[in-house]
Design goal:
single chain, 489 residues, mainly beta, Immunoglobulin-like, Methylamine Dehydrogenase, Chain H, 6-stranded mixed sheet, 1 helix, signal
């Protein structure tokens, strides 16, 4: 009897397919009624004559020197915006019961809005007070029937300004739970990171706490943003007064913050973002006495974790930076209408473009605060598979309050025909077998479809190698190719 043994290696891929979810970040309101609409674009020339596609500049309702936030639905339609004190509806009018929130427009990050788990018509607004103020961290519930275009939303009176923590620094971030449904909310003070879990039942009453290493108390030590990498594994927090960057790792399954490090730098860090691939940190530093004097820098995450303070100066004059749904990073300068665009943040930000007086109205210091989860694409694979043999590709799908696709289309990046797979509601794990005939690095792309409409695709790479063993032909009859070994009985 003959038995044929061949390699069957599994490439495990976890891809939360967010489809159109990136459009939830498509409306930005900030500064003194400035705004950007990423649903519409136009082509303009930068200050050095480079033709560039940009989001349309808009006027908005938010009037704030620092913090603000907004959220759209999965089609990119605006749902709400706020400065932390007043909530505005999609018509840029004050929402019903939308005044009197206890955030502060002079907080670095005055708040954030988070979709309620398992309820597409409910949202949580978490607000932050300024200057380590007594109002601390609070939440309010907003109800909007998103399927009804006439519903402009309202703030629940019963839950308005519910206390999460009696004191807080001026920072807030929301991260997606690994279960694809819930969220984590994080705030840092001088002593602790506070972590709350948000489920369909609401917030946990007692937060998880993680001790922060000793920090500088140079005033104003309560200033500075906090934000996460796109894959929700890395956290950055700034101590503006102390000129310190606090970096750590985050476990989205447990909410655990680990390996917290503090690094002193030359300038006072204020705001920034990770590149979409998580390999670079982009941030701004401001002069403590004159915020108009500012610089933008980047540094590799790995270098930062090794204690290297040698960042790259990108551009002078940028006050804040934010990653957008197009995976570029956009910047503003306080008290101007200038817009800056880092075209290639994943490659180190070598292409930075200035568009003078592009905004409709003047910017402040702040840009909108968003949850990192809307960008999330995670991938993990085996080191290699063998050319000429079946490779099993396993996909885990996580969907957050978006339209459900009907099929998945697999493109294996090797010139072969694409394969289609039915998408079933409630099923999260999908397998696909494919034979790669040639060795090399292949980019596999999975695109969800609903009818003929394609959603945002997700990609990963798999390494295919030649597994044959070269032997002395004189002894070939004693040693068969290991990738197709025959055992005789």
């Amino acid at each position: 009897m003959k038995k044929k043994i061949c390699f069957l290696l599994t490439v495990w891929i976890m891809l939360p397919l967010n489809m159109d979810a990136q459009k939830e970040l498509n409306w930005w309101y900030f500064g003194y009624k400035a705004g950007l609409n990423f649903n519409e674009t136009q082509t303009v020339n930068s200050s050095n004559g480079l033709s560039t596609v940009l989001p349309i500049a808009k006027a908005g309702p938010v009037y704030t020197f620092e913090g603000g936030f907004s959220l759209s639905d999965n089609k990119g339609n605006l749902l709400m915006s706020s400065d932390g004190k007043t909530v505005y509806n999609k018509k840029n009018e004050v929402m019903t019961n939308g005044t009197g929130l206890l955030g502060h427009d002079s907080a670095t990050q005055s708040g954030i809005v988070i979709p309620a788990p398992k309820n597409p018509n409910k949202f949580y607004v978490v607000t932050v007070d300024a200057d380590y103020g007594r109002n601390g961290l609070r939440y309010s519930v907003i109800n909007i029937n998103v399927s009804n275009p006439n519903d402009l939303g309202s703030v629940e009176i019963a839950t308005k300004n519910t206390v999460l923590n009696g004191s807080s620094y001026e920072n807030i971030v929301a991260l997606a739970h690994n279960n694809g449904t819930d969220y984590w909310i994080v705030n840092r003070t001088s002593e602790f990171f506070y972590v709350w879990l948000l489920t369909a039942s609401g917030f946990t009453k007692v937060p998880q706490t993680y001790k922060v290493p000793p920090l500088s108390y140079d005033i104003p030590y309560w200033l500075g943003e906090i934000f996460a990498s796109v894959d929700n594994t890395k956290l950055i927090s700034f101590n503006f007064g102390g000129k310190e960057i606090i970096s750590s790792y985050f476990d989205s399954s447990t909410g655990v913050i680990s390996e917290i490090q503090v690094l002193e730098i030359a300038g006072a860090p204020y705001g920034g973002s990770f590149a979409a691939n998580g390999n670079y940190l982009y941030y701004t530093t401001l002069d403590k006495e004159n915020s108009y004097l500012s610089e933008s820098h980047n540094i590799k995450w790995d270098d930062l974790r090794l204690g290297n303070t040698a960042s790259t100066l990108l551009y002078k004059g940028i006050s804040n930076l934010r990653l957008a749904s197009d995976k570029r990073i956009y910047g503003i300068r306080v008290h101007t209408k200038n817009l800056y665009v880092i075209m290639n943040p994943d490659e180190g930000g070598t292409d930075v473009r200035l568009f003078e007086n592009y905004l409709t109205n003047t910017a402040g210091l702040g840009l909108p605060t968003f949850g990192s989860s809307f960008f999330s694409v995670k991938g993990k694979g085996m080191p290699f598979s063998c050319a000429g043999y079946e490779t099993k590709l396993a996909l885990t799908v996580s969907i957050r309050e978006v339209d459900t696709p009907t099929r998945l289309v697999w493109d294996f990046g090797d010139g072969s025909e694409v394969k289609e797979q039915e998408f079933k509601v409630g099923i999260t794990n999908y397998n696909m077998d494919h034979r790669f005939e040639n060795s090399g690095l292949h980019k596999v792309t999975v695109t969800p479809y609903k009818g003929t409409s394609a959603f945002t695709a997700s990609s990963f790479e798999t390494n295919i190698i030649d597994c044959s063993i070269k032997t002395n032909r004189m002894i070939r009859h004693e040693l068969l190719n290991r990738s197709e070994l025959e055992i005789k009985k």
